[in-house]
Recover the amino acids of this structure.
């Protein structure tokens, strides 16, 4: 891999449409003809490079988007899926057989947590949920039947930063893959370059950035991606979470501006996090010196793209959180909605929404409090104006002291 930036590697790709269009043509077929019966036979055996068989296996549009994602993460190959969960579940079921074991960070996306906690036990696969920042615990949790270590580079919703280099070292020593979900920090963190074997994404969030679709990706070696779509045994091929070509082509157009968007999301989030911390609120953002993962993130990130667009503020109670979110929506500061990576700020209370799969007792253990609001900061051009309006909402509700001048 050369030293070029991920953004330029994406922009350097050029695939013209069949009539010289500046965008590749959208593949509008579920099935493909063969000139000879023998080629069809060989393609089923996985031997014929460049031949398309059936669009659940692969399609030109999906391969173009895959190329862009491999360029983003600096991996040999990427396989796109119909959702982030489609990518994550395929990877897990590809790597683990019945009776085997997974080590996972305990602070992960609610859907992934639910899959590992409640679903894979159907196959007698067991998961140990650990504090991923405690490297000793991670190493000690490895058993002979452990098949993978799983974490998020910056975790949802608590923004814990994983030491990917150190985790990769632990995994490599035991000959097992490190799988990293990089949904929160595209461009900023390149897990594969830090030693992760497999990088998964929900494209639904920052990468697509327009909150108009659900999609995912697995960035890894060509060998692993080919295994995922093997017609006889591949988890992605057989579970069938295939992305539609039309959607793949629209995501490809959006990923080309990801670098610009990430810079702005990060700049705005850092501004608001710093200001609200100065105001005395409990703000969690990896770009703040007060964040336990701040130094680690600074070491492993690509500085231009900043610390990402997600921050949390604990406003003390669920009631405060709900009232503030409703007021902020009313003032057009953003939308009370789950998900992230939109041009508009999105906010939700993870304890009662995206992480509600996690039991109250476990939420308490990991520090997920009721008053926590997760913000996905938007692309506002005048962020100071946003800050002033948001602060006024907090003052009105007594979350910040009322402005003395006004009283
Ligand atoms: C949203 C999300 C997912 C799941 O992705 P979908 O596209 O909704 O299936 C996985 N991991 C993280 C960190 C997410 O934020």
């Amino acid at each position: 891999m050369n030293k070029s930036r991920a953004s330029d590697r994406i922009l350097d790709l050029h695939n013209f449409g069949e009539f010289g269009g500046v965008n590749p043509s959208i593949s509008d077929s579920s099935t493909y003809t063969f000139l000879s019966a023998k080629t069809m036979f060989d393609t089923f055996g996985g031997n014929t490079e460049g031949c398309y068989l059936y669009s659940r296996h692969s399609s030109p549009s999906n391969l173009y988007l895959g190329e862009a994602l491999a360029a983003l993460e600096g991996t040999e190959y990427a396989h796109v899926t119909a959702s982030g969960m489609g990518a994550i579940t395929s990877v897990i079921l590809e790597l683990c057989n019945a009776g085997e074991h997974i080590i996972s960070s305990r602070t992960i996306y609610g859907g992934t947590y639910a899959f590992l906690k409640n679903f894979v036990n159907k196959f007698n696969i067991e998961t140990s949920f650990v504090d991923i920042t405690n490297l000793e615990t991670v190493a000690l949790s490895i058993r002979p039947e452990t098949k993978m270590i799983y974490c998020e580079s910056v975790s949802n919703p608590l923004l814990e930063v994983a030491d990917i280099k150190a985790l990769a070292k632990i995994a490599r020593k035991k000959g097992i893959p490190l799988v990293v979900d990089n949904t929160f920090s595209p461009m900023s963190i390149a897990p594969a370059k830090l030693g992760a074997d497999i990088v998964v994404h929900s494209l639904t969030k920052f990468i697509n950035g327009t909150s108009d679709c659900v999609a995912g990706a697995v960035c890894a070696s060509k060998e692993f991606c080919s295994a995922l779509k093997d017609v006889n045994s591949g988890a992605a091929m057989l579970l069938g979470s295939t992305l539609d070509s039309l959607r793949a082509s629209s995501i490809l157009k959006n990923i080309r501006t990801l670098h610009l968007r990430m810079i702005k999301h990060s700049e705005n989030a850092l501004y608001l996090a710093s200001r609200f911390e100065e105001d005395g609120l409990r703000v969690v953002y990896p770009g703040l010196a007060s964040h336990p993962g701040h130094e680690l993130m600074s070491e492993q990130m690509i500085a231009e793209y900043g610390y990402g667009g997600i921050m949390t503020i604990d406003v003390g109670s669920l009631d405060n959180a709900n009232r503030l979110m409703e007021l902020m929506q009313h003032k057009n500061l953003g939308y009370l909605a789950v998900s992230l990576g939109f041009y508009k700020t999105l906010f939700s209370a993870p304890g009662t929404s995206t992480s509600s799969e996690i039991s109250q007792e476990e939420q308490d253990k990991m520090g997920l409090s009721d008053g926590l609001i997760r913000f996905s900061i938007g692309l506002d051009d005048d962020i100071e104006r946003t800050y002033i309006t948001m602060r006024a909402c907090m003052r009105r509700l007594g979350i910040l002291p009322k402005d003395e001048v006004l009283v």
